[in-house]
Write a structure and sequence with these properties.
The protein is α/β, with parallel strands linked by helices and 485 residues long. It contains 12 helices and 19 strands. 56% of the residues are buried. The structure holds dihydropyrimidine-2,4(1H,3H)-dione and zinc ion (ZN) (2 copies).
Length: 485
């Protein structure tokens, strides 16, 4: 006889493949039964008229990163993960940064200590901004410890890698079994355009989009895909902002390459016009890549529907607006190039996608689950522990009222940022109860979880990121061997 800690009763369960009526029995933090008429649990949750969904997996969010100059990351692991859980997310993957010229091991150890305050489970990508021989020598042990993804940037002075450095990181990732994730924009082109705009006195927030047009993203996507193909290494491209970049990914996928694409709600909801809001308000919407056009938004939905873009994550970047350590670090007359990039979004990612996606008929419920939970769990090596509702999976569950209409207000979001780009946006569908490993973390907007409840998820190795075994020449430059055909 199964002894349930919790039974979620009378709900409609949805996974990436199915939607069905079932009770969910939870014991020891795991899903142990799916069926009807389950025995009583010590805690009973009535989910009549509710959707019972896997908790979201947000595989791209910036939480409690070290300050860069005077710019402070406003969220701690406690506030960031509370915010995530309030929006139905139960796993976050954030970034351990490397400061150029410094190592990665101590930075990662420090980041682990900060993350111990998380309310929900977490894992990390390691940012490599300087692949020195020492750093490359340190990486294999850190990957082996479960940090199975690396982030590289093709732009920003403080972190940019050139093509040779990129190839070195890609080669190491293939050898050691890690996934490389990429911020893809052409650095030299952005610098050139920024200088030209500044010389012409065109430095308002709206000119950010002029300094980072679609073509600079398209070119960098094309280039990094070619480099990944050259070495037979799977990669994920982060925050695809519009049709031309997504098209590069589609073309690569059609050639059978393991190139994965992610977009974010801001690229489905904002346009470059938002950067032109008066009184420096445009700075709130300034992120990289830049928001594009309405046509790009609809194209991105198409690429989601066809599976080209398999993940939608938040790129939560907690820069406060009315703050000298945030968007106003250089005042309200600052040139766009001095305004910290990014928008907050941990709490709003799922409600926005549910309402704009499922509610407006752009995607079905299974696709919503796939792009927000199952696919990131698979790509980052935590499935089926995370990302689904199945026997043996962690009981990470969000119980949604699909009919509840909410007007988004910043005070609902539990982050430490003083704004949301979705202020006043009405959404239909809201996560009422979030459970992490069977424990209620959020109930009707109240945070019930405690800092320290979250656990580190050591990852992999796993199949999704194995190389294809396809080589461009009869010599494999990663292993240094001739290919036997
Ligand atoms: N762009 C980034 O590259 N990082 C954080 C936020 C953003 O907009
Ligand atoms: Zn980025
Ligand atoms: Zn980011």
């Amino acid at each position: 006889m199964i002894d349930f800690d919790v039974v979620i009763r009378n709900g409609t369960v949805a996974t990436a493949s199915d939607v069905f009526a079932a009770d969910v029995g939870i014991a020891g933090g795991k899903v142990v039964a799916l069926g009807t008429g389950l025995a009583l649990g010590r805690k009973e949750i009535d989910a009549t008229g509710r959707l019972v969904l896997p908790g979201g997996v947000d595989s791209h969010c910036h939480i409690e990163e070290p300050a860069v100059g005077q710019v402070h990351n406003a969220d701690t692991f406690a506030s960031g993960t509370a915010s995530a859980a309030a929006g139905g997310t139960t796993t976050v993957i954030s970034f351990s940064q490397q400061v150029k010229g410094e190592g990665i091991t101590q930075q990662l150890a420090d980041y682990h200590i900060k993350a111990e305050q998380a309310l929900i489970d977490y894992s990390f990508h390691i940012v490599i901004s300087d692949p020195s021989p020492e750093v490359m020598a340190a990486l294999p042990a850190l990957i082996e410890q479960g940090h199975r993804s690396i982030k590289i940037f093709l732009t920003y002075d403080s972190v940019v890698l050139d093509d040779e450095q990129t190839l070195n990181v890609l080669a190491l990732a293939r050898q050691e079994g890690a996934l490389v994730t990429v911020h893809a924009e052409n650095h030299s082109a952005i610098k050139f355009l920024t200088n030209a705009l500044e010389k012409a006195g065109l430095t308002l927030p709206k000119h950010h989009a002029w300094a980072k047009p679609m073509v600079v993203e398209r070119e960098a996507c094309h280039r990094v895909i070619a480099l990944a193909e050259l070495l037979d290494v799977p990669i994920q491209i982060f925050h695809v902002s519009g049709a031309e970049a997504a098209e590069e990914i589609r073309r690569a996928q059609n050639r059978g390459l393991k190139i994965f694409g992610e977009t974010c709600p801001q690229y489905l909801m904002l346009t470059a016009e938002d950067l032109n809001r008066p009184n420096f308000e445009g700075a709130k919407f300034l992120c990289s890549p830049a928001p594009r056009t309405r046509a790009d938004q609809e194209a991105l939905w198409d690429y989601i529907r066809t599976g080209v873009l398999g993940i939608v994550s938040s790129d939560h970047a907690p820069n406060r607006f009315d703050d000298v350590h945030g968007k106003k670090v250089r005042g309200t007359d600052a040139p766009f190039s001095a305004i910290p990039n990014g928008v907050p979004g941990l709490a709003t990612r799922l409600p926005i996608l549910f309402s704009e996606g499922v509610g407006k008929g752009r995607i079905d419920l299974q696709t919503f689950v796939a792009i927000t939970s199952t696919n990131p769990a698979k790509l980052f090596g935590i499935h089926p522990q995370k990302g689904t509702i199945a026997i043996g999976a962690d009981a990470d569950i969000a119980i949604w009222d699909p009919n509840k209409t909410v007007t988004i207000r910043n005070e609902l979001l539990h982050h430490q940022v003083d704004y949301t780009v979705y202020e006043g946006v009405e959404v239909t569908g809201w996560p009422e109860i979030t459970l992490s490993r069977g424990k209620v973390v959020v109930e009707n907007g109240e945070i019930r979880g405690k800092p320290g409840d979250g656990r580190f998820l050591a990852r992999g190795p796993y199949d999704a990121i194995k190389p294809l075994g396809r080589h461009v020449t009869p010599f494999d430059p990663v292993s240094g061997t001739l290919i036997d055909n």
